[in-house]
Amino acid sequence: MKKFLKRANRGLILAAAAAAGVAVFTLADNAGFSKDKPELEALTRQYLEKVKKVNLAAPADRSALAKALINDYWCDTGEGYSMNGALKDEMLDYIENYQDSASVTDYVDVERSLNVEKNGFRSAKATVEYDVSMEMDPLSREYQILGLESGYYYYGDLTGTAEQAQDGSSAGTVNKNLTVNLYFYEKDGEWKLGTADAANREMEG
Asked: How far apart are CA 66 and CA 92, in angstroms?
């Protein structure tokens, strides 16, 4: 009986020590993330500013600039498929086949909200309510924002609303009200994007 109690007590002690270790690790990880959160917010805004510049570029230059953007800011997560949206390779494949020749003559973006939260160990999710108004010539109702949207993962219609110019020209305006989810992973001490998706806010349930 004494041997059994000793073994039971030893088991309880080991279980308590393991639980304490997990608790300490979790607290340390959460504290580290609190320090990283401002950096991730700034990185999200920086990425969106780069997205804007890419889409304002001349049509002939957009694809090359978009590929450079993805290669600079994104990493390979090691996944073959993600429920969280498009992976780096999928984004690059979409850009490779991208053919829209409309000129974006103005791009006005508004950040309605930004929330960054933990999404697992050394992983984070930034959710941005993001409105974009693009003046285009010619008007392209199907235009997708390079760096945010990809035909690989979108749910429903991402075309937004389109208005033809009143002067009879081919120009017009496309307005999009998006919720963008950007998933970050820490790689070699640096935060990188690994997955992204965009959806019309009106279609989210």
From this structure: 8
Between 85 and 128, the higher pLDDT residue = 128
Written as six digits, the tokens of 46 are 């920086």
Residues 6 or more apart whose CB falls under 8 angstroms from that of 82 comprise 194, 195
Radius of gyration of the chain (CA): 23
Domain spans of the chain?
A: 2-203
The token duo for 88 is: 């780096």
Write out pLDDT tens, residues 71-113.
999 999 988 888 888 999 999 999 998 888 999 999 999 999 9
Distance CA 183, CA 197 (A): 9
Could you tell me which CATH class the domain 2-203 is placed in? alpha beta
43 touches 184 (CB < 8 A): yes
Per-residue confidence (pLDDT) for residue 5, from 0 to 100: 55
Q: Is 153 exposed, middle or buried (0-12, 13-18, 19+ CB in 10 A)?
A: buried
Region of residue 144 (left: phi > 0; alpha: psi -120 to 50; beta: else): beta
H/E segment holding residue 28: helix 2-56
The reported pLDDT for the residue numbered 67 is: 97
